[in-house]
Amino acid sequence: MRPKTIFFDENEEPPSRCTEKSAAHHPSLETSTSFRNRYFPAATEENWNDWHWQLRHRITSRRQLEKIIRLSENEKNSFHFQNATLPLAITPYYAGLIDPDNPEHPLRRSMVPVTNELLVSPGESPDPLGEDCHSPAPGLIHRYPDRVLFLVTDYCSSYCRYCTRSRMVGRRTNGGKKQWQKAIDYIAATPVIRDVLLSGGDPLTLPDEQIDWLLDRLRRIPHVEMIRIGTKAPIVLPQRITTELVEILKKYHPLWMSIHCTHPDELTAEVREACTRLADAGIPLGSQTVLLAGINDSVETMRRLMHGLVKIRVKPYYLYQCDPILGSSHFRTPVSKGLEIYAGLRGHTTGYAVPNYVIDAPGGGGKIPLIPETVAGREGNDLLIRNYEGKIYRYPDMIGAADSLARQGAPPCE
Ligand code: SF4
After folding, report:
1. How many CA atoms lie less than 13 Å away from 291 in the CB half-sphere?
2. Atom of ligand 1 nearest to the CA of 230
3. For the chain, which end, N or C, has fewer CB atoms within 10 Å of the first or last residue's CB respectively?
4. Which residues are known catalytic residues?
5. Each residue of 70-89: pLDDT tens digit?
6. What CATH architecture does domain 131-369 belong to?
7. Domain coordinates of the chain in residue numbers?
8. What is the pTM of this model?
9. Cβ < 6 Å from ligand 1: which residues?
10. From atom 7 of ligand 1, which residue's Cα is the shortest distance away?
11. Is the pLDDT of residue 412 over 60?
């Protein structure tokens, strides 16, 4: 059984342009059904709700895109250089969420190429995280001692223009089970690995049988305590979260899922249905969001996104400073903007709705959290701490004061 296209009722907040109500707020936006009828008239509702159909009908060329979007000159020109950049792919479902008239529309900017991608700025690199240097087997990154990143496919249903792995996604270079077996052998032979993160590309674009095979092989390794899946499928291809897939996933607990999301307009009824299925199957859901200039770089947008995620049982997990991949300067914000957003969330809303703001350190240093300064100093036995309103409070930290004095008096280390 597949998820059906469903709509929020009139009393709920409009989740996206998918409802008639939200379409009314944006005169150029259509409902999911009218979008389908207009641009895919031969498709039945069953087709539309079939993830295979969605993948077969991805928008992958300028010609297809122009049928549904009035391209700007910048967007048109980018297609002269298509071989030099990340491929274009957008599922019909996600294309239906894009404003056809506004090149600045957040979801449009995250998926439709522009010529700015050709501009390489200082500090940018094809592999800023240095992943390729930490690869003991094809597709496997072993950067942290107790966990590995297992890139099981380079294919995504839709390609985000700011993708950290834009150097490799969409190239169709994956080796399938033969290649995966080498990575699995490495994991099995390395007892220190207790956590395996399946990513890519998008692992949930693989067929059910291959996902089952991968999870089964990993679960047979006694020291693998947890398995995680990093995916954008619930957001760009919610039809993928079928009951059949969920039945497979729930056999392999503890299984966690990190869902990549960008903007509150993505949180449609279909996405809610997909996340409900996953959460009901006992899969803890966390979110990963990249901070993007002009897309989600305001406290208001980020608050709406985080609140929307909590409502569909996804715990906001990471807010990433955009990685300096080649041609990404038009997406990057100053770090001060991220700190401002973090400060605008922390204390102002439920703690569960506040993600960790991190920089994945260039060169392979791992995720480093960034937080506005909250320790304002010390007076005698008191630690001075700053709250979310900027007010200073005192915490009686006698033990800390004694420890601090002892350190000051201690001889230097030899
Ligand atoms: S879904 Fe993830 S892997 Fe795929 S293009 Fe987007 S960021 Fe990259």
Report:
1. 29
2. 2
3. C
4. 143-144, 147, 156, 160, 163, 165, 323, 360, 367
5. 999 999 999 998 777 789 99
6. Alpha-Beta Barrel (3.20)
7. 20-104, 131-369, 375-409
8. 0.89
9. 156, 159-160, 163, 165, 169, 200-202, 232, 260
10. 163
11. no
